[in-house]
Design goal:
With 428 residues, this protein is of the alpha/beta class. It has helices at 78-88, 94-110, 128-139, 162-172, 187-204, 223-233, 252-264, 273-279, 295-300, 324-334, 340-346, 352-358, 382-388; strands at residues 2-12, 19-24, 27-32, 38-44, 49-51, 54-59, 113-121, 145-151, 176-177, 207-212, 239-243, 268-271, 304-307, 374-377, 392-397, 400-404, 410-412, 421-423. The strands form three sheets. Strands 1, 2, 3, 4, 5, 14, 15 and 16 form an eight-stranded mixed sheet that branches. Strands 6-7-8-9-10-11-12-13 form an eight-stranded parallel sheet, sandwiched between helices. The protein is globular, with a radius of gyration of 22 Å. The relative contact order is 0.15. The structure holds fe (ii) ion. Fe (ii) ion (FE2) binds at residues 58, 60, 119, 211, 242, 310.
Length: 428
């Protein structure tokens, strides 16, 4: 018997012994310590980490690569970002959106991200960006799976015809219902924002992912409303609260009550380290809050947490290149998850935990009979991957190589040594 592909001497996350991984017809055919058969193509991983693909669980594809259009965010704040985006929105065209998104998806794929959940702003009577992204979702299926969230950037109740635009977005084919309760004009409108998202989700039998409590205001408490609705509507496992930065600022008594409720509701939480640390704490003098939600404590409370890139060169975050491993490394710093096991566990936030959030676990992971989606990192362990942010040497989707990277090499020459020696950044 012969296979299409064998990755030899691969190290799997949390497994000490090396394995060979055989792929046939786009699926993992066999995972064993020593596969004697041959394959059309063989890659020797030489002990490198072979991981399921990375997942960007929260990004705004409609806004990517618009930094500086029509102007740069001079204050760096969330509110100026929303203002600049409202100035950019009228000039959105199908071609403009598609061109930027297709390019950015290539960036993410090159770095090992094969699943993306993107919010798309539906506060646009023409729904231009949504229509373009619905086309992109289909066009990139060979390299990346995209879920689209109907996202009311300017509010469901606070924006003209907000409810109708949300409904229209679902009718056009959005995968997930979004919301933005903390941004509505009043507390009551915020509660209604959440209730409306649940009503729409039930009507279309869809999952929910709301931007929720994305503020430093400790009185912003809509995540609890989402949890109560989740339990009352029987939507456990299907609901995600994104950002939840106010949780950073809640007093501990309330925060721990809320975390227990989130666990009971089977809710997922998504943190976005780049945007959270850059956009929150802006009204502080010193000390300045980090802003990111309580990732470490949520995990300890049994809540599933995943990460997103959120912004890539847009009005809110001018930098970034779509590297989820860099997002995970930043979360590690910001959330004090630098214990040895914690560093290794951080990889889960952009892999298995995110797969649970996107509810794709049945077809995700390096297991026999699942789609052969994986990447080979130029590092032996998750710990080393999070330290080095190494090249993603090979990225495979359904057994086909969709991206490859040649790692950079550094050389240092001492005086009198013209050849020099390579720098590996590793303790041998
Ligand atoms: Fe967001």
């Amino acid at each position: 018997m012969s296979f299409d592909l064998i990755i030899r001497n691969a190290r799997l996350h949390r497994r000490n012994t090396l394995v060979d991984i055989a792929v046939t017809n786009g699926k993992f055919a066999r995972i064993a310590s020593d596969i004697s058969e041959s394959a059309t193509r063989e890659i020797d991983a030489v002990g490198r980490l072979v991981s399921p693909p990375f997942i960007d669980a929260h990004v705004h594809l409609d806004a990517v690569l618009t930094v500086g259009q029509p102007r740069y965010n001079t204050s760096g704040t969330l509110l100026e970002g929303i203002q600049i985006w409202s100035e950019r929105k009228p000039s959105l065209t199908r071609e403009d959106v598609k061109q930027r998104v297709l390019e950015e998806v290539r960036w993410e794929v090159a770095q090992g991200t094969l699943h993306i959940r993107s919010h798309v702003d539906v506060c646009d009577p023409a729904l231009t960006a949504l229509r373009a992204l619905l086309e992109v979702r289909e066009e990139v299926r060979d390299i990346c799976d995209i879920q689209l969230v109907a996202f009311p950037q300017d509010g469901i109740l606070s924006f003209p015809n907000g409810r109708e635009l949300m409904r229209k977005a679902m009718e056009l084919g959005c995968d997930i219902v979004g919301g933005i309760p903390h941004y509505e004009w009043t507390r009551d409108m915020g509660v209604e924002d959440v209730h409306y998202a649940f009503a729409l989700a039930k009507e279309f039998n869809r999952d929910i992912d709301c931007h929720c409590d994305e503020t430093d205001d400790p009185h912003s408490r809509f995540t609890e409303v989402m949890a109560a609705d989740t339990i009352e509507q029987g939507w456990q496992g299907r609901v995600t609260a994104s950002h939840c930065t106010a949780m950073h600022s809640y007093d501990n008594a309330y925060a721990f009550k809320l975390m227990r409720l989130l666990a009971r509701a089977g809710m997922h939480v998504i943190a976005n380290p780049f945007d959270n640390v850059v956009l929150q704490g802006r009204f502080d003098t010193y000390p300045k809050r980090r802003g990111i939600t309580r990732v470490k404590e949520l995990l300890a409370a049994g809540v599933n947490v995943a990460l997103g890139h959120d912004s890539i060169m847009d009005p809110w975050f001018p930098l970034g290149r779509g590297d989820m491993l860099a997002a995970a490394q930043l979360a590690l710093f910001l959330c004090h998850m630098s214990g040895y096991d914690e560093i290794n566990d951080v990889l889960d936030l952009i892999t298995t935990n995110a797969a649970k959030t996107l509810r794709i676990s049945d077809r995700y992971g390096i297991d026999e009979d699942k789609p052969a989606d994986f990447l080979v990192l130029d590092a032996p362990t998750a710990f080393e991957a999070l330290r080095l942010l190494p090249a993603r040497l090979h990225v495979f989707k359904q057994g086909r190589e969709v991206a490859s990277t040649i790692p950079a090499r550094s050389n240092v020459k001492r005086q009198g040594d013209d050849e020099g020696g390579e720098v590996t950044y590793r303790i041998e």
